[in-house]
Design a protein that fits this description.
The complex is a heterodimer of chains A (604) and B (287). Chain A is mainly α and 604 residues long. Helices cover 63% and strands 1% of the residues of chain A. In chain A, strand 1 and strand 2 form a beta hairpin. Chain B folds into two domains: 154 residues, Up-down Bundle (Four Helix Bundle (Hemerythrin (Met), subunit A)), CATH 1.20.120; 89 residues, no CATH class. Bound molecules: protoporphyrin IX containing FE and copper (II) ion.
Chain lengths: 604, 287
């Protein structure tokens, strides 16, 4: 699907192509392209498709949470046909199906949608342009990394259709559950999940090497470190996080794969018993080891999810306040500090394992420390708004909404970073609400902002503003209607990962709180509302490719950074002459200047 | 515009692109193997007593062939030296010398892998046998003069064997962690040059029989996983180096500087592979 759609939008990329380049064939141009812009578009379209798919999985789950035991309209029959009666008998979502949709929703959203969109798509398309480079440092590696990602996605999707279905043990895949969830099949959903993850991790590692090398080596003349747009800094730190945090998960994945396929006991303790009796393994392994290795990646991963969005938002805020970012240097140092601290907070996800007060104190302290640079970034962006004559276009609306939404997500994380409160909140809907505020109305809004903002550079046409506004206001309202009630559910004790939304607990009258279950219904309605308001976006996205308002200049937003000094869309090799940089990235409204923006490449 | 610094170093960083790339890649490799070493430590300190009755800490010792491991270490270290010599030969513009050193390097790599394969096979045909009287012995089986691989108790029973011939190991001194008393008769046996006792074990008396394969114990799991992964790195490195020795030599004629850079990058990777082994060897063989 992605390859056919990439045809339509990328075909604009060749209209301005260099004349002396001989015309490459279709496959070379769109499938085996080494051009960072085509690869960026490939990443963008595939990850948007995965975002949509991950959302559909969640819609089916939300139906089950609101109306447990009722057949899912339309899709239910399809699930029964495609996935089998034991998964969706009579169109009703069974527990196994809920579990595998849940695990795959998390996995797909994180590893196949948000990261590839934030890092693979925006990073690939924009970073080389912003530093004045002709391409990435290793174009063929770049292509390989997209192909590995795509293959990883295919494996993940394929796992739905094998006997037993896709992985069911959460995106965290804790052992021993992950190994024992499908005891009969050797090649089960979990095995494919692991194979898929190894592919995705390898893809990310290649990408990370490429990004860092590009930023270190290919900066244009005059593009010193402190003249880098903040977006590039964010990508730079993100790449380091991926480079150093992902390998331990790759190691863990290989070990769990061995547990699944070779019958080893890396993560299986001695004396493991299930309802089927003693598990026939040697034992002697450590379930805690998995958790350490997993979270050693997965905490830095949350910064991988958020930093690129912060980068996007910073660019758009500077551009639309027509003011330099407030505290550019503190932003840079803050993002570097996050990069370091991100590696020493992971066990705050593991307070429940009983790590003892000394270790818990260490991780509580580092967790509180890492919130400082995050607050610095958010504050600097808020202060940047002060006194600006703000242009409220669609990208700016999304960028502005990012700030309070991420703020809510971040602040509600503090109680989870403290042992005493986390023991109560752990694994409740409070956690779901917290991190979704960060990634859904947070990161996704940042990325939507980026789509609207860079769309004219990629296609030569603007996206429609009216549809953009409808998309924005609808999303803002419904995102909050979805996720804010989850805080209440969680605080009142509702656990996550329950396939009936907690109905069984309330049946026997223990702690009966029918209000909580009613919230399940209203949240699901809100999720349908959210879905409805994505339609204008999807329509706008495709319609504008050929019908949007044509841009009249290469720099429609009157921006300062280098990507706007290229032809639209940029040709192979990006710049028509070697770019030279004379100034910092955000010289807006410089006193005495003729215009209210002074591009980085303007001499004098 | 062409991509700059693919061959010449960038003035302010002093590095060409591939060199930055390989260092970054190696950093991620450090994290990969670092994770496995951490896993090793955690598995070892939480090891359960009972599986190996003759050891105090629940973790098997002395099951690997130390002389062979030492020899393999020497093989790999020599190849790490010769890969540098090969690169220096290019700097001296002496292609035949480069080629000779490279051939030696690749030969070492293949030698290393060959020896490792032999070791693996040796382990797959090595068994730990627990009898109903609570005794545990290790050794190779002797089934009509053959030493079978990958058997388990079911395989033995399915062959209708009643008495199993086993070449029971007389444990070497590494089997006993530092500070633990080594029984006199073991000293004596080694002094006499005896390493095995031929024994016959009633199959009906066998409680469990497992080959030295990953599923038998976390020690084997981590040993095989780490050495296999390392072996893959050796193989990958050897393929790349062999490519530049035998197939991709045209680049030397068209762009010698780039060719030399590639050898340097390949050499850096090769040193890393060597370095991993230098940690791996003491950790799994000696400690
Ligand atoms: C915007 C629409 C979304 C909705 C309505 C939604 C809803 C939910 C809900 C209700 C759960 C809890 C399921 C359960 O515990 O049984 C969940 C889990 C999760 N979601 Fe989302 N989500 C959305 C988007 C995202 C995005 C953008 C991400 C990106 C990273 C994401 C990542 C996750 C993860 C990692 C889990 C945990 C899965 C697990 O338990 O293993 N979600 N989501
Ligand atoms: Cu965390």
């Amino acid at each position: 699907m992605a390859s056919t759609t990439s045809h339509t939008s990328a075909s604009h990329g060749v209209t301005h192509d260099d004349h002396h380049h001989h015309e490459p064939g279709f496959f070379q141009k769109y499938i085996f392209s080494t051009d960072h812009k085509v690869i960026g578009i490939q990443y963008g379209l595939s990850s948007l498709a995965f975002l949509f798919f991950g959302f559909l999985l969640m819609m089916a789950m939300r139906w089950q949470l609101a109306y447990p035991g009722k057949a899912i309209p339309v899709l239910g029959a399809l699930f029964e046909k495609a996935l089998g009666t034991d998964m969706a008998q009579g169109g009703v979502m069974q527990a196994d199906l809920y579990n595998s949709f849940g695990a795959m929703h998390g996995t797909i959203m994180v590893f196949l949608a948000i990261v590839p969109l934030a890092f693979g798509a925006f990073g690939n398309y924009v970073t080389p342009l912003q530093i004045g480079a002709p391409d990435m440092a290793f174009p063929r590696l770049n292509m390989a990394s997209f192909h590995l990602y795509f293959l990883g996605g295919v494996v993940m999707l394929g796992s739905f259709f094998i006997p037993g279905g896709a992985a069911k043990s959460g995106w965290t895949s804790y052992s021993p559950l992950a190994t024992l969830a499908d005891p009969v099949n050797v090649i089960d959903g979990q095995t494919l999940w692991l194979v898929g993850m190894v592919l995705l991790i390898t893809s990310s590692l290649l990408g990370a090497v490429n990004f860092i090398t590009t930023i270190i080596q290919l900066r244009a003349r005059g593009m010193t470190w402190m003249r880098l747009p903040f977006f590039v800094w964010a990508q730079f730190v993100t790449a380091f996080l991926l480079l150093l945090a992902f390998p331990p998960l790759e190691a863990a994945g290989l070990m769990q794969l061995a547990d699944n396929v070779l019958g080893t006991s890396f993560f299986l303790p001695t004396g493991l018993v299930t309802s089927a009796g003693q598990v026939p393994v040697s034992g002697g392994g450590s379930p805690l080891l998995w958790q350490h290795l997993f979270w050693f990646l997965a905490h830095p991963e949350v910064y991988v999810l958020i930093l690129p969005a912060m980068g996007v938002v910073s660019e758009i805020i500077a551009n639309n306040t027509r003011k330099p970012l407030w505290g550019y240097r503190s932003l840079v140092y803050a993002v570097l500090a996050i990069g370091f601290l991100a590696f020493i907070v992971w066990a705050h996800h593991m307070y429940m394992t009983g790590m003892g007060t000394k270790i818990a104190t260490f991780f509580q302290t580092t967790t509180m420390m890492i919130s400082v640079p995050s607050v610095i970034i958010l504050s600097a962006l808020f202060i940047s708004l002060w006194g600006g004559s703000i242009r409220f276009n669609t990208p700016m609306l999304f960028a502005l909404a990012f700030l309070p939404m991420f703020g809510i997500g971040g602040l509600t994380g503090l109680p989870l970073g403290l042992n005493a409160t986390d023991l109560y909140l752990h694994d409740s809907y409070y956690v779901i609400a917290h991190f979704h505020y960060v990634v859904a109305p947070g990161t996704i809004f940042g990325l939507f902002a980026g789509v609207y903002y860079w769309y004219p550079k990629i296609t030569g046409r603007m996206m429609n503003e009216t549809f953009g506004r409808i998309h924005f206001w609808g999303s803002l309202v419904f995102m909050n209607l979805i996720f804010s009630p989850m805080f209440i559910q969680g605080i009142r004790g509702m656990s996550r990962r329950m396939y009936d939304g907690g109905a069984t607990y309330f049946q026997d009258g223990v702690g009966a709180d029918p209000g909580l279950l009613k919230l399940n219904v209203s949240i699901t309605h809100a999720a349908f509302g959210l879905a409805l308001f994505q339609l204008p976006f999807i329509f706008n996205f495709f319609w504008s490719i050929s019908n949007g308002k044509k841009v009249t200049s290469d720099n429609p937003w009157e921006a300062t950074t280098l990507e706007w000094q290229t032809p639209t869309p940029p040709p192979h090799g990006n710049f028509t002459s070697e770019p030279v940089v004379y100034r910092g990235p955000y010289e807006y409204s410089v006193p005495g200047a003729k215009k209210d923006f002074t591009p980085q490449g303007q001499p004098g | 515009m062409d991509i700059p610094y693919t061959v010449k170093p960038r003035p302010d960083t002093g590095l060409y692109n591939a060199k930055v790339g390989i260092w970054l890649f190696l950093a991620s490799e450090v994290m990969l193997f670092g994770a496995f070493f951490s896993a090793y430590i955690l598995l070892r300190v939480t090891a359960q007593h009972g599986f190996w009755p003759d050891v105090a800490d629940g973790w098997p010792h002395g099951l690997l062939n130390i002389p062979i491991g030492t020899f393999n270490t020497a093989v790999l270290i020599s190849s790490s030296v010769t890969v540098v010599m090969a690169w220096m030969a290019l700097k001296e513009n002496n292609f035949p010398k480069f080629r000779n050193f490279m051939i030696f390097t690749v030969a070492c790599a293949l030698g290393f892998l060959g020896i490792k394969t032999f070791e693996y096979k040796e382990k797959f045909s090595h068994y730990v046998i627990r009898t109903t009287d609570g005794k545990v012995v290790t050794g190779h089986l002797d089934v009509d003069g053959k030493s079978p691989l990958f058997w388990n108790l079911d395989t033995v029973k399915s062959k209708n064997i009643e008495k199993l011939k086993v070449e029971v190991d007389i444990p070497n001194k590494y089997r006993f962690p530092v500070g633990m008393h080594v029984p006199e008769d073991i000293h004596k046996a080694h002094a006499e040059g005896r390493h095995h006792d031929e024994k016959e074990i009633e199959v009906s008396q066998i409680e469990s029989l497992k080959a030295f394969i990953p599923s038998t114990h976390p020690f084997f799991a981590i040993y095989f996983t780490m050495t296999f992964l390392h072996g893959l790195h050796v193989l990958g490195g050897a393929l790349v180096l062999a490519y530049f020795t035998f197939i991709g030599t045209d680049l030397w004629k068209t762009n010698p500087e780039q060719f030399t850079n590639r050898i340097e990058v390949g050499g850096l990777f090769w040193h890393f592979v060597d370095l991993v082994w230098i940690f791996l060897f003491p950790v799994v063989y000696l400690l």
